[in-house]
Design a protein that fits this description.
Keywords: Membrane, Transmembrane, Transmembrane helix. This protein is mainly α and 58 residues long. It has one domain. It is rod-shaped.
Amino acid sequence: MLGIAAAVLFFIAFLINAADLSTNEVFASVNVMLIGLTLLALHVAGVGSGLQARPRRR
């Protein structure tokens, strides 16, 4: 799920950069891209992947 959110944020950052839109500093292209990279790093680290199966103890 975080990987999809990262892809959407990368696309938004691309559109802001390609269309040369003037936004405030919070929604600048680089800031949106950095949020996307953060979400991608969390996805790769396994955050948000759901519950993990525990091995049974005997």
